[in-house]
Design goal:
disordered C terminus, Growth Hormone, Chain: A
Length: about 400
């Protein structure tokens, strides 16, 4: 497959999973009504989807190393599509949670496979190319909450917007069938321990914990911004859906900037800038509680600085562990999914059963913890790991 066709396929798939990720948050209140439970109970759906994502990412990385991306993407896309339909038509909390796991498993398989594909095929430019790839995730994430706001205004439901994600998944599948099925490079057979891959490297787990905190924050913002705006300001849930769209738009702009500036600065410099921006945005959200203007500003700041971290951490991981990129990336992104499975759930419990200020303090604590973990990553990173792209 030509590089141009490969990029079209990858970008289309990321628009589709971005669409689904962006539409799920606004759809949560309608799903809660559909099954007759409160929002806190539906927070379990976010947990179930990311548990499924984490399970897929644990096994999909090694399978990419051994089998190549095509079969993993095809199976993942099929499960994701079926899971989307299942969530739409479920009327039972138990069934919704089980289907959410299937949905998440497909999501995770597609996500990690495309990341590994781009990192491998564009190895010398992996940081800007991965940021560009995730920009298209942002495109889907921006459009779908805006469509959800429209369907809420028309029919008082965001479920039609979520359902369109099923159509988006189908569109790029013909290109997936044409993908060259090339397994990722295996570790040298004669390599000694120093040259082989090991799970007992502290840097691997530090990168994973950093992604755990970041993805937990990103998923929580996507899931709860609509309800948070509705409850703490006079703007209403329709405006909340549009503000959620604004969050994903700011995140997309951040990834475009990440693709541009990663060619001039080291990934570590980019990450430090993002972490400081996230600390500032979360502090503004806490201080501006109840103010529509400050809340919107804080959401946009958090979105802007949430753009580059995920693809940049993945690029650092594949470059730092070249003898086992799939295995290393599986560990790191699976830990990211663990964060998404737990932190938004905790955020929802604080939001629905404690207080909305408590939820904002959790976000601030997450960003401060990221700074501490980044210090550990910086201390243990080899200088050769990743340099600015050529």
């Amino acid at each position: 497959m030509s590089p141009r066709k490969l990029m079209v396929m990858a970008f289309a798939l990321f628009i589709a999973i971005g669409w689904l990720g962006g539409a799920l948050g606004p759809a949560l209140p309608n799903l809660a009504d559909q099954i007759g439970r409160d929002l806190a109970a539906l927070g379990g759906l976010i947990t179930a989807t990311f548990v499924g994502t984490m399970a897929a990412q644990i096994v999909a990385g090694p399978l990419n190393d051994r089998l190549g991306q095509r079969p993993v993407i095809l199976v993942g896309a099929t499960l994701l599509g079926l899971g989307t339909l299942g969530i739409l038509f479920s009327h039972s909390l138990t069934a919704t949670l089980v289907i959410g796991f299937v949905y998440g498993f497909g999501f995770g398989a597609v996500d990690i496979s495309i990341n590994l594909l781009i990192a491998h095929r564009f190895a010398r430019r992996s940081v800007p190319m991965l940021n560009l790839l995730h920009t298209f995730y942002g495109v889907g994430s921006v459009i779908s909450p805006a469509v959800a706001g429209l369907t809420l205004a028309l029919w008082d439901s965001a479920l039609p917007a979520f359902g369109l994600g099923f159509v988006a998944i189908l569109i790029p599948l013909p290109l997936v069938w044409q993908l060259d099925n090339v397994p990722l490079p295996a570790p040298p057979v004669s390599a000694g321990r120093a040259n082989g891959f090991s799970y007992r490297v502290a840097l691997l787990w530090a990168l994973g914990f950093l992604l755990l905190l970041f993805v937990g924050l990103e998923a929580g913002m996507g899931a709860w911004t609509t309800a948070y705006v509705d409850r703490t300001t006079a703007l209403g849930k329709e405006a909340g859906a549009l503000i959620t769209s604004g969050y994903w738009l700011a995140l997309t702009i951040g990834r475009i900037l990440g693709a541009l500036y990663s060619a001039r600065f080291t990934p570590q410099t980019v990450l430090w800038a993002c972490l400081l921006g996230l600390v500032g945005g979360s502090a503004l959200l806490a201080v501006g509680h109840g103010s529509a203007v400050l809340t919107v500003l804080a959401v946009l700041v958090l979105g802007l600085w949430s753009g580059p971290p995920y693809p940049t951490i993945v690029a650092i991981t594949t470059a730092t562990f070249p003898n086992g990129p799939g295995k290393a990336t599986s560990v790191v992104v699976a830990m990211g999914s663990l964060g998404a499975a737990t932190l938004p759930w905790l955020q929802g419990v604080l939001f629905d059963r404690v207080s909305t200020p408590a939820m904002t303090l959790l976000l601030l604590a997450e960003t401060l913890a990221m700074v501490l973990v980044m210090m550990a990553v910086q201390a243990r990173s080899p200088r050769r790991a990743v340099a600015p792209a050529d």
